[in-house]
Amino acid sequence: MDGRDSTIPRDADVAVIGGGVVGISAALFLARAGRSVVAFDRTEPWSDASGSNAGTLSIQAMRVEVLAMARLGIALWQRFQEEDGMEVGFHRLGGFLVATNDAHIAHLRDYAAKQAQSGLELEWLEANAMRDRAPWLGRDVRAATFCNEDSHASPLLAGNAVVAAARRAGAYVLSQTPVEAVTRAGASYLVKSAAGGLRCRAVVVTAGPWSGEVARMLDVSLPLYVDTNMLTITEPGPKLFDRVVSHVAGILTLKQYENGTCMIGGGWQGRGVFATGQRKTDYDRLRQNWATAASVVPGLADLRAVRSWAGFQAVTPDALPVIGRLPGHEQAYIAAGARGGFHMGPAQALALSEMIQGREPPLDLTRFDPGRFA
Ligand SMILES: Cc1cc2nc3c(=O)[nH]c(=O)nc-3n(C[C@H](O)[C@H](O)[C@H](O)COP(=O)(O)OP(=O)(O)OC[C@H]3O[C@@H](n4cnc5c(N)ncnc54)[C@H](O)[C@@H]3O)c2cc1C
Questions:
Q1: Which of 66, 97, 165, 369 counts the highest number of beta carbons within 10 A?
Q2: Whole-structure pTM over 0.85, yes or no?
Q3: pLDDT tens for residues 149-202?
Q4: What single-letter DSSP state applies at residue 246?
Q5: Which atom of ligand 1 is the closest one to the Cα of 344?
Q6: Could you tell me if the CB of 352 is within 6 A of ligand 1?
Q7: How crowded is residue 293: how many other Cβ atoms within 10 Å of its Cβ?
């Protein structure tokens, strides 16, 4: 991102604190709706988890509680790409959610039944039907569901495209500008940063794993913890598979890009020290991640890893995000802690943007109310 927008107005309708996928998408929606918006990022916008994740948009891997939000997320990524002309690398490939032992098959059946009840169309596949559909799946894969909505997008392309779109829509997007304090000033808020003081009517906390820290500036304490997820990218190889693949136990996500490289993830934990910002990979766990990947798509065993990395993401005790008004505040909002936060980022942002404009959000947010932890 370039370092534009280093000077800001003294007043705005909305201050967005945290410039990842949620914050920048919120800034975009609000600016398009005619609101004046200043989005702050402590480093470079979209450079943290939002810029370094796997880009998996696997709706069938989502819990039923977030299915509506996951579906809206995919629709918005597709709209960004196909209607708004933003190059976000969106591809709807369809995907398999696989099971590799009896316990996983039982889990997959249970999962599929719940998702089907919630309106998701899935195909149950095993034995020959599965081999016919996906001959590249390994013998260890015992059953799978196929969902044609599963997709992926490119975190890198999306960052450039959505930040540029937010700026074009009129939002100020600030780099290297951490928010240091937020105080109430009558019916407004005063946001303090190196760019000076900003008086605004509403504040949006979208600071990813730092959201708890920012919420505390508003005297709200939320139980937000931090995971250190790891990813591996391979060298380019021959075309091995053409779908998004995830494991029902949450231990694998896989995709192959047009240039032949494969992205291998699945939530394996690295050795992060959030307080110091240190994000180290754990090689034993990466090896297990790799072994799982090669048992699901054996062709991967012939490829070499080019790079592995780790990044921080916020999590909550009930594994559901906090989205909505901060307890005790009429005009301070938060969205953080979603598992699949890239997938659902634009949907969370749209929900906040609608609330800030005094409209009904496009989703029922009751389960995600931050007040459940108050
Ligand atoms: C390795 C990895 C792989 C992942 N894979 C996937 C995937 O395949 N699919 C998926 O859906 N999700 C995935 N995720 C999760 C996803 O990346 C995150 O949930 C999502 O990007 C979070 O977006 P965000 O906007 O909430 O926060 P972030 O992207 O964390 O952005 C928060 C921003 O707030 C800024 N900030 C913090 N404090 C301040 C402050 N005081 N003032 C100003 N700015 C501040 C930070 O600099 C940062 O840029 C993955 C995560 C990781 C780490």
A1: 97
A2: yes
A3: 999 999 999 999 999 999 999 999 999 999 999 999 999 999 999 999 999 999
A4: E
A5: 11
A6: no
A7: 27
